């Protein structure tokens, strides 16, 4: 255990709290002004806050290193971000936070496990283990109890 | 419960994996805050284009909406910054597990009390056990 471990754990927990609040705020905004409109606002406000963070942090100069990377990476990440927020905005008011976030996380876990197994995206290969499979089933069982 | 919403929410999670991978590749070059900035700018442009080309399903108005609702997008950046602090100290796996656990716990509080414009959904015992199972499952999947 390195130093600052407790602080890092607290920060990780707090980030989870903030992400949940963010999802709910975007969904509430979507109920007022529309799904895509809310996704646009979330990205515009995020870009503004991110701009100040980068200017006062690492500086904008480092962004130049994006040159040489294929354009597909930022495009895929940006476009999927918009879709992700739109879907959350659509689903959360219908099924509630726990189920919406739970399904979202399970989709993430299952896909990450499969991608990991087949080594997609050049990730390191981790074969399916019994423990991993049990984890996926346990999470899905938990989801059915929430349902 | 509408099966359509359930499947969509699940597929949305797989999309998140794809976004995380492409965002991380970007982050290796420009840092994760820089990556987040680029992703948000491209996302805003993409959503803006869709809106301009007529995919509206509501209308922009600012009156009568709590100001807080507009700040959601800014919180995502802080989530990234917090990840930057936590990952080198406790590892990506621990960070993901703690963050996911608290996402679910916060979600259950928001549902239970109907915070921030949510319709209240009471936290029953089976719901609570379900959340614990979800967190336990995530720990089993991610732990080395």
Question: Could you walk me through the main structural features you see in this protein, from its secondary elements to its overall organization?
Answer:
The complex is a heterodimer of chains A (about 150) and B (about 140). By secondary structure, chain A is mainly α. Chain A has two domains: about 1-90, no CATH class; about 95-145. Chain A is built from five helices and no strands. In chain A, helix 1 runs antiparallel to helix 2 and helix 3 (about 70-95) packs antiparallel against helix 4. The longest helix of chain A has 29 residues, at about 5-35. The termini of chain A are far apart. In chain A, about 55% of the residues are buried. Chain B is mainly α and about 140 residues long. Chain B has two domains: about 1-60, no CATH class; about 70-145, no CATH class. Chain B has helices at about 5-50, 70-90, 90-115, 125-140. In chain B, helix 1 (about 5-50) crosses helix 2, helix 2 (about 70-90) packs antiparallel against helix 3 (about 90-115) and helix 3 (about 90-115) packs antiparallel against helix 4 (about 125-140). The longest helix of chain B is centred in the N-terminal third of the chain and has 50 residues, at about 5-50. Chain B is globular, with a radius of gyration of 18 Å. Chain B starts with a helix and ends with a helix.
